[in-house]
From TrEMBL:
Family indicated by similarity: Belongs to the bacterial ribosomal protein bL9 family.
GO cellular component: ribonucleoprotein complex; ribosome
The protein's name: Large ribosomal subunit protein bL9
Keyword rRNA-binding part of the UniProt annotation: yes
Record's keyword terms, sorted: Ribonucleoprotein, Ribosomal protein, RNA-binding, rRNA-binding
Name of a matching Pfam family: Ribosomal_L9_C
Annotated source species: Kribbella antiqua
Physiological role: Binds to the 23S rRNA.
GO biological process: translation
Ribosomal protein among keywords: yes
Domain Ribosomal protein L9: 13-40
Molecular function GO terms recorded: rRNA binding; structural constituent of ribosome
Amino acid sequence: MKLILAQEVEGLGAPGDIVEVKDGYGRNYLVPRGLAIGWTRGAEKQILTIKRARDARAIQGKEHASEVKNQLEQLAVTLDVKAGETGRLFGSVTPADVAGAIKAAGGPLVEKRSIAIATPIKTTGKHQVSVQLHPEVAATVRLEVVAG
């Protein structure tokens, strides 16, 4: 069975890859869970267009990742959140919140999947968040969470 992966599947491929799998694995596991879609020529063309757009946005090489790292580490990122009088948040800060705050601070576009929050951020104050830009390059972003 020929399928196009919609999400990364360990040991099989990355999103947009065209893979050949056994019928049962595709029909009973990959397709029902939304991990893959059936292959057609039209779908293949659409996936190639999406891949080209993703590659244009993606960080190109270790040198480019180092430049982006320098930009991120020089940023002063502030995130306004709802918090109680004691400084405790209603919920916690998510990677999507951090990505939006980086963009709002004038930083480069960062995918939320590349942001790692070591311990859940549930209080106002200064925190550090790691951003994996390249397999060999990671940036540490200083994040100030303020009650808004």
